[in-house]
Design a protein that fits this description.
Mean pLDDT: 89
Strand content: 15-25%
CATH class: Alpha Beta
Oligomer: single chain
Order of helices and strands: HHHEEEEHHEHH
Helix content: 40-55%
Number of domains: 1
Distance between the termini: 34 Å
Number of strands: 5
Strand order of the largest sheet: 3-2-1-4-5
Number of helices: 7
CATH superfamily: SCP2 sterol-binding domain
Low-confidence stretches: none
CATH architecture: 2-Layer Sandwich
Shape: globular
Length: 164
């Protein structure tokens, strides 16, 4: 019998791929608003200045999703296409492990569960930025949800390297 957490992860495996069908404009507006609100403190402190004048492409390979991000005037901006400097690619579970801190970022990259392509110096700076963010800047309910889901993903067997 599945635990409630396992059931939620199986549901996520079925529902998350549907997000690729959401029009990009809706994705962009939702992500920009959510990220800029949740990361307001580090954005205001200049933590994301490393992205000023640079574009990062985040690809969630197993969901068929990708977004290009930059930072302008202490706000994250998202585009469908941009002159990308660096790409970070992985499956949704690996990004969850990274965000919830249930897996060391270096381990995820070393084992090729997350991949950096392009300007690796910029990619490493972004990886370090993500790793340095204080979870206390996130809404408590969001951090708790990420921690709970990340703990369940961490308990499961590793799927392997990222598909291209």
């Amino acid at each position: 019998m599945l635990s409630p957490r396992e059931g939620l992860l199986r549901l996520a495996d079925r529902v998350l791929p549907l997000t690729a069908r959401v029009p990009f404009l809706v994705q962009r507006v939702a992500l920009e608003r959510s990220l800029n609100r949740a990361l307001a403190e580090p954005l205001g402190e200049g933590a994301f200045d490393v992205l000023n004048g640079h574009w990062l492409r985040l690809e969630v390979a197993d969901l068929g999703l990708a977004w290009c991000l930059t930072c302008e005037r202490q706000h994250l901006r998202i585009a469908a296409q941009a002159p990308v400097d660096v790409t970070i690619r992985g499956n949704w579970r690996e990004f969850l492990l990274l965000a919830s801190r249930h897996e060391d970022p270096d381990t995820l990259f070393f084992r090729r569960r997350l991949v950096i392509e392009g300007d690796t110096e910029l990619g490493l700076a972004i990886k370090n930025l993500i790793d340095s963010l204080d979870p206390d800047t996130l809404p408590a309910w969001l951090w708790k949800a990420m921690q709970t889901a990340g703990a369940e993903v961490a308990r499961q067997p590793v799927a392997g390297a990222v598909a291209r």
